[in-house]
Amino acid sequence: MECAREGCTREAAVRLHIPWAENEDVCTAHGRVAVQKEGVVAEPLDVEDWS
Prior knowledge:
alpha+beta, globular, about 15% helix
């Protein structure tokens, strides 16, 4: 499964639970940035490569 962020072709590695929007499956890079916002929680997906 590909990252939900527009223009990103990396594999999704985390599911973001976002209180003000729908959940998103994103790559680790986008996940690291998103969880810095208050209320956003990242749940790891079952993937083989975490790069």
